[in-house]
Amino acid sequence: MFTYIIKRILLMIPTFFAISLMIFVILNFAPGTPGASLAGGEGSQSAEDSVGQRESYQIFKEQFNLDKPVLFNTRFQLDTATVRAAIGDVLNADRSVSISRQIEAQVEIEDWGNYAVPALVEILGSDDVVEVRSYASRRLPLNAKRRLRNLYGGRSSPEDRAHNKTVLSENRQISTLTFPPTASKQEQAEVTLAWQTWIKKNSDRWDYTGTKKLVILATDTRFFKYWMNLARLDFGVSHVDKRPVLKKVFKKLRYSLSLSFTAVLLIYFVSVPLGIWSSVNQNTTSDRSLTVVLFMLYSLPSFFTGVVLLNFLTRGAPFKVFPTSGFESLDTSGMTTLDYLGDVLWHLVLPIICLSYAGLAALSRYARTGLLDVIRADYIRTARAKGLPEFVVIIKHAARNGMIPILTLLATLLPTLVGGSVVIEVIFGIPGMGLYVWESILLRDYNAIMAVLLIASGLTLVGLLLSDLSYALVDPRITFD
Amino acid sequence: MNTSADDHKEQSNFGDAGEDLTYADIVWGQFKHNRVALGSLYAIFGLILLGTMAPVIASNQPFMWELDGVRSYPWFTNLFDRLVFENPVDIFFNLLLVALVPGVVLIGWRVTKLRASSLTKRARRRRMRSEASVLLIVFVLTYIAVLLFPHQSSYTPYPKLMDRIETKGVQQVDALFPIFDFGFRDTGFRPLAGPGNGHLLGVDNSGRDVAVRLLYGIRVSLTIGVVAVAIYVTIGIILGASAGFFGGRVDLGIQRLIEIFMCMPVLFVIITLIAFLDHTSIFHIMVLIGVLRWTGVARLTRGEFLRLRNQDFVTAAEALGYRRRTIIFKQILPNALGPVLVAAAFGVAAAILLESTLSFLGLGDVSAPSWGQTLKEGYSSGKWHLILSPGFAIFFTVSVLNLVGEGMRDALDPKLRQ
User: Fold this and answer.
1) What is the arithmetic mean of pLDDT over B34-61?
2) CB distance B399–A23 less than 8 Å?
């Protein structure tokens, strides 16, 4: 048993890694860019003017590693011709490129960052058109800039601060080394020379050896950086309000958990007796009609029920019994604990109904079949032959074994418990995980979406393991050895 | 649920054709007894028929149009017009509509002819199957041809034209319209108006007739359900069959893959991806559901293959020197298909539910009429006629599909065989 658990947990790690890789790739290659609204009126302005204006968006991208390639980084191979072509597309001298390509080329050069520096210096020193060389000179201070250390982590050590100070002064130094397209020959030559000496001085930064290349290929990527943080259980900060995602998730968890926990409790408390009752009365009219009713409930879409209940009981058309939305009343300060609990419960009645009835229908069917399987067993006949009262036979002898299958289902409910329900939470305005995912999706808050998706899949993995283990736990006939 | 008299009769029936009774015959015989399931199956056929007949019931193109003695038939000529029906789904159902009458006549003629012939039952079946596949191929090829060569003429809203002509009162106009002379996209009625006044189920937020939208919505919902499930059944069967048949490393790899997809929060992923797409079409939804939800079918098929792999008939087939492909697809697969078909029936219901959830959240295809879309308008406007009708449409479709699935499961269960 113990070895089995260890084996399963060890198998879970690569599976979880694969899931995270898949979700990461899907999210990163999905159309749309995070924080696109920050980039500002794309396309409206000419690409050349916006070099400085786009800097703040670039800082945002660097902060979230969005300037890095998703899985593999081959930018150490960047050659001058590629960079030259991109600059040509940005400047668009002969108006042959579409605006979208123009912006794309600009983003490319921005994202290349440090890797484009040698090529840019080479272009600067070549006898290219003055516009191209001027653009390269204005790009260089931005691309050659070194990144500050631990800027967004919050707790910066003295060494970090000292490092950041030198980096800042270096960055300031090179920031003036530019020239406009209208500059004189002499000014151009000065700037070019300054850059050429600068790069010679810092040449070790672009001297890629074999191992260094390999390290860059695998580690200077979005996925690696994300996983490094993830290993420290750091899910990053939200793109929207820059606050840690995990903290927010835990805050939301309170709402989702109280909603779904009550729902699951309700499901089990109703469906087990219902299943027992209908299996005892098997094939009577009441059993059949219960089956039909439960089947209808199972097929009834929960968002439809939600809207009907909402409209019927909260909006005053015709009744206004329950609050329309939210988890609690707006002002809960003056309430005693009991009042507060009552208030929350009053808000949750309708969502809980919507969340539980389908599960209730399914589970009581399971309970019914579970008991029917057992009730024909020999030991039940023995119990009856002993003259035990029917009640004891059913409850004490049959139900205990018959309920095993639905007990093990509990573990598989774990992810639903935490993940909540997007639709129900959206309809009733419950600020839980479902609504959080929904809002994050609409705002393209990648870190938040990733966090919720990963937590949900991790919990599913754990739930699967627990349900397998619970089989062995409640049924001694099953072993894993 | 059956009376004993029924049982007896059925048994004697089995006895008559005993020597030529296939597995499908037995299952069908079981299924027939379940009146609810049989009724649900007919209800599904009814829904398909209703969806196919949609343009006959509601279209803004008149069957016949006569202006100053010049007669034209716009309904017939515009059935494949990409300006009237822009969605490939509509084109498919319109082709089905055209093929309906000749198809039924042709099939009926062939079946009666073959029944009257002196062929054995098995040979007759084979003939029927080959002729049916020819028919199917012709249909699919025609559909592809219609899609590849889109036909477009200038779009004329005839009912509005007629109104204008009638107010002028100059020309002689004679027209024959379908029962409702507007399509699912036609706006201009009083927004949020309740039922009545020529609108059976009222008008939605944008001034479109709800009944007609629900009618055309049948096409969208059923197509999404069937195509999505077809995609994932194909993927699931291929992966599950190879895992179960080959075993060993293949099995291990595919099992890991299944585990990965099983643990992915598929609903969240689908919602995320659909929300990220700029122009969602119903094909995105189908493909996403199809690509992400195959694990159930794969596990079922794998289990069945594991069970059947070591049975005598497979050993016999191997001893006879059959090719591997033949053994997998012709020998084992037909025996493993039962549980998969049950899962598919439930799967279509689930896919329809998922699609309406997506469009309820506002993520669906805006250009296609969808039940969830109308329900969403009901949610935001609080109008009962916009809540109840689409809700019941979803409920009805999902329940009949689930009932058929349940009936199939019972019919396949040897323990329940009577």
Assistant:
1) 93
2) no
8 Å CB contact between B66 and B80: no
Count the Cβ atoms, other than its own, within 10 Å of residue B21.
Answer: 15
Edge-to-edge strand list for the sheet holding B64-67: B70-72, B64-67, B173-176
CA distance readout (Å), B418 to A375, B271, B338, B375 = 21, 45, 18, 43
Percentage above 90 pLDDT, chain A: 8
CA–CA distance from A129 to each of A108, A195, B383 (Å)?
21, 18, 67
Please answer yes or no on whether B375 and A461 come within 8 Å at the CB atom: no
- List B203's β-bridge partners, or say none: B209
A161 token code pair: 């601060």
Residue among B264, B272, B357 whose CB faces A423 most closely: B357
A125-174: pLDDT as tens digits: 887 888 888 888 888 888 877 777 666 555 667 788 788 888 888 888 78
What architecture (CATH level 2) is domain A245-474? Orthogonal Bundle (1.10)
Average pLDDT over residues B14-37: 76
The per-residue pLDDT for range A63-107, each reduced to its tens digit, is: 777 778 888 888 887 888 888 888 888 887 777 888 888 888 888
Contact between chains at B265 and A30 (C-beta distance less than 8 A): no
**CB-based contact, B350 to chain A, within 8 Å:** no
Q: Are B54 and B91 in contact (CB under 8 A)?
A: no
Q: Domain limits of chain A?
A: 72-220, 245-474
pLDDT in tens, A203-249: 777 777 778 888 888 888 888 888 888 888 888 888 778 788 899 98
Mutate to test the interface with A, among B264, B374, B389 (most CBs of A within 10 A): B264
Distance CA B208, CA B191 (A): 7
Structure tokens at A150: 């631990």
Residue B17 pLDDT greater than 60, yes or no: no
The question of ipTM being above 0.90 is answered as: no
- Measured between CB atoms, does A21 come within 8 Å of chain B? no
Chain A CB within 8 Å of residue B354 CB: no
Residue A288 has pLDDT above 60, yes or no: yes
Q: B191 and B383 in contact (C-beta within 8 Å)?
A: no
**What is the C-alpha to C-alpha distance for residues B162 and A208, in angstroms, rounded to an integer?**
77
Task: Check if the beta carbon of residue B225 is closer than 8 Å to that of residue B193.
Answer: no
pTM: 0.85
Vertex B348, ends B343 and B353: CA angle to 5°?
A: 120
Among B11, A291, B342, A281, which residue's Cα sits nearest to residue B2?
Answer: B11
Interface contact flag, A317 B384, Cβ < 8 Å:
yes
